[in-house]
Amino acid sequence: KQEVTQIPAALSVPEGENLVLNCSFTDSAIYNLQWFRQDPGKGLTSLLLIQSSQREQTSGRLNASLDKSSGRSTLYIAASQPGDSATYLCAVPNTGNQFYFGTGTSLTVIP
Amino acid sequence: DAGITQSPRHKVTETGTPVTLRCHQTENHRYMYWYRQDPGHGLRLIHYSYGVKDTDKGEVSDGYSVSRSKTEDFLLTLESATSSQTSVYFCAISEAPGQVFGRYTFGSGTRLTVV
């Protein structure tokens, strides 16, 4: 079974800082990796999907990288804003059409 | 989220009663999933479907059943609700989860309280 770990579990930064969220997985035979954002009491919103053949994917101030061989992905957020405060989760599919999720990193950006 | 609707959004029910949650999609995606989300456990897969009448169990399927009679609807039934099933339930859809372009889309969730 795929194990997905996200460190740290919580992170607090002042506004304007650049930050990195980490995701690690145990089975490197993945097709893609997806990063989500979840606001309190809300559903999950897809941020970025990075395919196994890619090393990076960018959307605005967000940049996701993927290193399959080491079983790691990072989500880089540039110039953080209070509106970025949320829980960020990563997910990987296995060959059985199931997705495995990390437990998330709760981010607080302090104005 | 556009294209995927969960109902009801909130429900309070008594222990021992059956409860059905509905997920409806307009994307014509083949795969549909039910997850529960609990503090300290993250998202855990209950059941999923890979086509009409084709379903399979996830890691926390005990006490739950599902049905999919149409592509657009995936129902989750708690056969006899217990307090341990108090949770937030999310439905998700995917066109091709095992493929390099397979994106996952979530509904807004159903908050279920069993008293």
Task: Give a written overview of the molecule.
Chain A is mostly beta strands. Helices cover 0% and strands 58% of the residues of chain A. Chain A has no helices and 11 strands. In chain A, 38% of the residues are buried. The mean pLDDT of chain A is 92. Chain B has 115 residues and is mainly beta. Chain B has strands at 4-7, 10-13, 19-25, 31-38, 42-51, 54-57, 64-70, 73-78, 87-94, 104-106, 110-114. In chain B, strands 2, 4, 5, 6, 9, 10 and 11 form a 7-stranded mixed β-sheet that branches. In chain B, strands 1-3-8-7 form a 4-stranded antiparallel β-sheet, with no helix packed on it. The termini of chain B are far apart. The A-B interface holds A 31-32, 34, 36, 42-46, 49, 51-53, 89, 91, 93-99, 101-104 and B 1, 31, 33, 40-43, 45, 48, 50, 58, 90, 92, 94, 97-109.
Radius of gyration of chain A: 13 Å
Mean pLDDT of chain A: 92
Extended strand count of chain A: 11
Helix content, binned percent of chain B:
under 10%
| H/E element order of chain A | EEEEEEEEEEE
Main sheet: strands, sense, barrel of chain A = 6 strands, mixed
The amount of beta strand of chain B, in percent, is: over 45%
The number of helical segments of chain B is: 0
Strand content of chain A: over 45%
Choose one word for the global shape of chain B.
globular
CA radius of gyration of chain B is: 13 Å
Please write the string of helix (H) and strand (E) elements of chain B: EEEEEEEEEEE
Mean pLDDT of chain B: 92
Largest sheet of chain B: 7 strands, mixed
Q: Helical stretch count of chain A?
A: 0
